Amino acid sequence: MNRITATYDIESPVGVALAAEVLAGEQSTGTFTRLAAETDELRARSAARIERIEITGSRATPSLPSRKAGNSYERGLVTVSWSLENFGTSLPTLMSTLAGNLFELAELSAIRLVDMNLPSAFAMEHPGPQFGATGTRDFMGGHQGPIIGTIIKPSVGMNPSETAALVQTLVEAGIDFIKDDELQANGPHCPFDERVKEVSRVLNAHTDKTGKRVMYAFNLTDEIDQMWYNLELLEAHGGTCAMVCINSVGLTGLRALRNRSQMTIHGHRAGWGIYSRSSNIGISFPVMQKLWRLAGTDHLHVNGLANKFTETDDVIAQSATSVQKPVTEGGPAHLAMPVYSSGQTVWQIDPARTLLGNDDFIYCAGGGILSHPSGTAAGVIALRQAADAARNGISIQDYAKEQPELQEAIDTFPETRVAFKGSYPNR
Amino acid sequence: MNRITATYDIESPVGVALAAEVLAGEQSTGTFTRLAAETDELRARSAARIERIEITGSRATPSLPSRKAGNSYERGLVTVSWSLENFGTSLPTLMSTLAGNLFELAELSAIRLVDMNLPSAFAMEHPGPQFGATGTRDFMGGHQGPIIGTIIKPSVGMNPSETAALVQTLVEAGIDFIKDDELQANGPHCPFDERVKEVSRVLNAHTDKTGKRVMYAFNLTDEIDQMWYNLELLEAHGGTCAMVCINSVGLTGLRALRNRSQMTIHGHRAGWGIYSRSSNIGISFPVMQKLWRLAGTDHLHVNGLANKFTETDDVIAQSATSVQKPVTEGGPAHLAMPVYSSGQTVWQIDPARTLLGNDDFIYCAGGGILSHPSGTAAGVIALRQAADAARNGISIQDYAKEQPELQEAIDTFPETRVAFKGSYPNR
Fold this sequence. Notes:
The structure is a homodimer.
Chain A: E1 3-12, H1 16-26, H2 40-46, E2 49-59, E3 73-83, H3 84-87, H4 91-98, E4 110-117, H5 120-124, H6 132-139, E5 147-151, H7 160-172, E6 177-179, H8 192-210, E7 215-219, H9 224-236, E8 241-245, H10 246-249, H11 251-260, E9 264-268, H12 273-276, E10 281-283, H13 285-295, E11 299-301, H14 313-322, E12 337-340, H15 349-356, E13 362-364, H16 367-370, H17 376-391, H18 396-399, H19 404-412
Parallel strand pairs in A: 4-10, 5-6, 5-13, 6-7, 7-8, 8-9, 9-11, 11-12, 12-13
Antiparallel strand pairs in A: 1-3, 1-4, 2-3
Helix pairs in contact in A: 7-8, 9-11, 11-13, 15-17, 17-19
């Protein structure tokens, strides 16, 4: 099956069936009205095909402003397919086709790309994550269990020495993973090269002393040449993880990084709300994460359960599980590691683990570690105890009876309510 | 003034003023609750500042789904500023900051980035368009007047020989500019290198014969290394224009192209609807076009007046004029050339020219040329006549009395209604 399929949730003033034809025309042979040069043979070869239409509703007013008006606005799910012949296996051209001008069509008053399936021939042409969960553990000297991480805060404003001093505190507290904030890349007050030098000194000294290798995701987001320069610098200092804001550099920036990287790539999705926030426009995470994994990210942010942002817990669960599923049926699986973050404490680690059914995730907490009443080290220990409880199928309250750090965390952090409406395969 | 300002149109369940504080905190020092390490000095240096708040309305229900609920949802314009110290002059980090996690905040039920002003120190660190309108004209041997262009259709499906045959027809018809479709980059059925070879042979033979150099925008959208390879191939065949789908490759992809290009860059904005379609989420064109110009595009698509898509004529006018304004006050102007396209005929060229007040634009028509009853050459001539009429302040109907091709076009193509609600400086 050398066809790519995409499913859109659309609403239309001209009816879903007609709108689907316009969409398929615009995104393949390019004209709804047939041109002279558009022979039957050409259409058979290149035209997008409507595979399935499911009407889901109708409303009296358009969800988004539209040049065309209708008596009503019909809503439905439309699955369209394209031959691989149209774009080959180019990710950018896949984007131009599946997520191109169709978002602007006057025949649509809502359009969201909600699902995409690629043939294995497509996935085989892309490198995918170089290390994934197993490689990440190897870099850390065979780390077991979920990776307990934190984020440098304040996000911006500290200089390299201040950052290194904070890192010293964190590594002494037994943290597994630390990441730069997405706002901190290479500003004048905290230049990338100085930060790498000062922080690496702390990390390497800690490894020499304890044998433990803490992974630090240095945010090297920048122009291509500068990112490559940053990568080399990181390698020279024993770096094991390059963090990049994937929406800020774009798909080709991520892939360019992957092509030259000898370390894990930590994909931060800052800006994701543009794609996710409205139910009437955008792209779903299960679609975008496939593209990011094909381009080579090892870790991928999925927000956190009961987070400080807007996505529901069902969306988080869907996002987290999606990156652990094969990117296509057959062909390379290209699995990545989900990264939970945003308002995470000991309360969310059980559901975060349970919905995945494994420990192959990174769990980033800020206040959830630093605000532990017995200090940062106790904050890290409490999270590990909560992860142990989850792995053993024991509630954190029961497990805490013999684990004082966990008990203190339970008493300190307000219980969060994680509420799934859906059901998950591993739950 | 070494501060960057951004204006957001926001709606909030907690009130605009409080939401603005959350936004500014999240996108700078990173915490609404102050951390121990967040000293007064650090805040003075790095915290984003709220410069201005204007309340514009209120509604009973949220415009977008939000984790937080309110009794009402206040709407307003909020201007926030950041010190250049926070990100230096990195475009990707500017994106992570101005268009990062803020789109997901639970304190917002709508957020759209509607304006951005950069200090000249920022613009000076970026190459900007290498050629602009003047350089584009030079490549074409000193072309006068607006550039009349067309798009290869069907979008996909033709092989290189079929494409070259169509190009032969078009250059003989006197066209100035031809572009690939955004869906056609390097597919198996029409490989980039073969297309360049066959089409360039036609273009170069035409130049040898007539002295006229038609500009062809070859769509080289691909991964970075492949785009660079494509550029070299294009140069070897006398190419003068590289087309790229800027949303598909991302900002760093565009800049990487600019760094190695010796020809004009034609920026296609396929996928733009994700940013533009909803008034409750996204980024305005006047903001995005500054980033694309800083990264180096010479030409920039702005849709067309009375187009087949959804943007209103006021939005098109604002978009087209924005790319001809200096990117910052003081510093390099980095001007680009607007490209009109989508449903364009002789009817829209007068308003398209009038709102700019000059001829420095590309006017792409498909059916508006090919469907002329006296053939393609007459279609091109009619558009030139319409442009002459506009330059001389004569209506196309009056001008057509002595220009038969224009009269035929007027009789053939339905009159489009271009309706500006706003007023334009050059009108």
